[in-house]
């Protein structure tokens, strides 16, 4: 597979990738262990070829296990610590939430007509040339490092509509985060992985050049649908990778007549499936993680003609004010293998204080879905019986629960009245009323009416009921 990784890191101007070698540059520690524990991690001889990085090898740490990634993070990344329950606590740097104002999508002959542009749209345009400037900057930075982490993983549990993704990153924290959040391949699937459908270049430790056209800060998150690539510069917040892939699915799935949804999903013991739509931090993870029901997923789903399926292989739960009594399943999932983002803990006991928001209110835990005892594996189920819209009402005027007609469901789905919750987006300090189309406007690629029409058709076809639940305040503010 080594030529594949070299090609992924190829410089566009020079046309060739670096010489790559598997393993840790800090010593051949993995050589002794890896072919015993993980036969697919074996070290291969470097490919000697003409390279733009000819003075050194770029070491590729490929699909490492959580234990190996823990070692890398604790040894080489400042701000990485082991907590009392065995989770890996990390810091995401200056950015502790997403940066939607710095996200760009390449506009070309195809996307100009297909995508939602203009007023109200999250898609801010950039041209192909500027994307290539940023891509070159990211790839050159990654090639300058002694080692890069490469994850080859899948999106979508529906086997007929699975997407192959490759994530190239420079932090063990990012590699472990994506290991947890995407679907983990078996050794056999990895052996036959082939060319990915989409590649992320995460050079978030390195800023973009703010004088480059279309840039508004030193942060830039750029998606090129034609090249099937995403570039991250100037932010180490791991949620950018997860949500970038979600935007991709919002583009690819409707082309296959599959509805992509910003929702949680669970299933009762009788097979009744419920969808929970909502913005980040408004209750999707908490409500879908119910120990009386089977968890299909907490955030991103696809509704096809056959089933509803989880896009991801993990959960990304908000941790602020987390308690064992209120959310026992999430509490118990924070153990070895889990990434804790931007939490504060006791220096001596390493016990996390989930009430402390001194770093950010957007503290998070990323863990594989198997860490939830009643997760339904594989993560798909029958057509939903109930579609629940979660409105976090900052004004406190919506009733706690309302049953909706199909027309009312469409109205609330398109208008998406809710709140931006503190910390989830860079700069939000307290709940702020907002209208977010489809309860996820920040990730939509096509016009909201496209998704609403598909939802109406599927709800009508399968007899699903619509509900509006207020997860914010009651009694007026």
UniProtKB/TrEMBL annotation:
Family assignment from sequence similarity: Belongs to the phosphoenolpyruvate carboxykinase (ATP) family.
Keywords, sorted A to Z: ATP-binding, Cytoplasm, Decarboxylase, Gluconeogenesis, Lyase, Nucleotide-binding
Catalytic activity field: oxaloacetate + ATP = phosphoenolpyruvate + ADP + CO2
Pathway per the UniProt entry: Carbohydrate biosynthesis; gluconeogenesis
Compartment(s) where it occurs, according to its Swiss-Prot or TrEMBL record: Cytoplasm
GO molecular-function term, one example from the UniProt record: phosphoenolpyruvate carboxykinase (ATP) activity
Function description: Involved in the gluconeogenesis. Catalyzes the conversion of oxaloacetate (OAA) to phosphoenolpyruvate (PEP) through direct phosphoryl transfer between the nucleoside triphosphate and OAA.
Primary residence: cytoplasm
Listed Pfam families: PEPCK_ATP (PF01293)
Top EC class, one word: lyase
Domain of life, per lineage: Eukaryota
A GO BP entry: gluconeogenesis
Organism, as annotated: Gossypium harknessii
Name listed for the protein in its UniProt record: phosphoenolpyruvate carboxykinase (ATP)
Gene Ontology, cellular component aspect: cytosol
EC number: 4.1.1.49
